[in-house]
Amino acid sequence: MDGEKRKREIRDMIRDYKKLLDLREYRTTSRFKTTHEDNDLRGCYALVDVDNPNKKIYLRFNRWDSMKMGKKELRKVVLHELLHSFFWELSDLFNYSIDKGKITDRQKELLKEKYENIENRKIDQLTKVVIKLDKLESRLR
Question: Residue 12: enclosing H or E segment and its boundaries?
Fold first, then answer.
């Protein structure tokens, strides 16, 4: 598939899911990088940074992985990343609490990793629900 065509598809998916999730007030920026250009993308399909006070969502996609993915899998990745925007307050509170605690840096690192794993599991569950609801809504149209 043509790289520019895939980027347009992803941007259309972002637009559709922003509408579905009622995130229209957020400005979204998406970038497509290789792991050589963005080391953080190693082992990831995509990453998201949410700047909630300024209503901005920054999405970074692994260019090569997004080219190889099927449309169904890619929709799940886009939705998963956008759903992270619902957890920013919990994540900030957790990180603030951990950083103020009197525990070792290693313990902080392990707790943050555990939190990220829990958050990702919950987002995966939400992704499945939203996709089912989206399919149901599409059938009813």
Answer: helix 3-20
The phi and psi torsions of 24 (rounded to 5 degrees) equal: -60, -25
Q: For 32, which DSSP code? A: E
Sheet containing 56-62, strands listed edge to edge, beginning at the edge strand earlier in sequence: 27-33, 56-62, 46-51
Q: What domain range is 51 assigned to?
A: 3-140
Q: Which residues pair with 46 in a beta bridge?
A: 61
Pairwise CA distance, residues 64 & 70, whole Å: 12
DSSP notation for 76-137: HHHHHHHHGGGGHHHHHHHHHHHHHSS--HHHHHHHHHHHHHHHHHHHHHHHHHHHHHHHHH
pLDDT tens-digit map of 5-56 = 989 999 999 999 999 899 989 999 999 998 888 888 998 899 999 888 899 9
Q: What CATH code is carried by the domain that includes residue 109? A: 3.30.2010
Q: pTM here?
A: 0.85
73: number of Cβ within 10 Å: 13
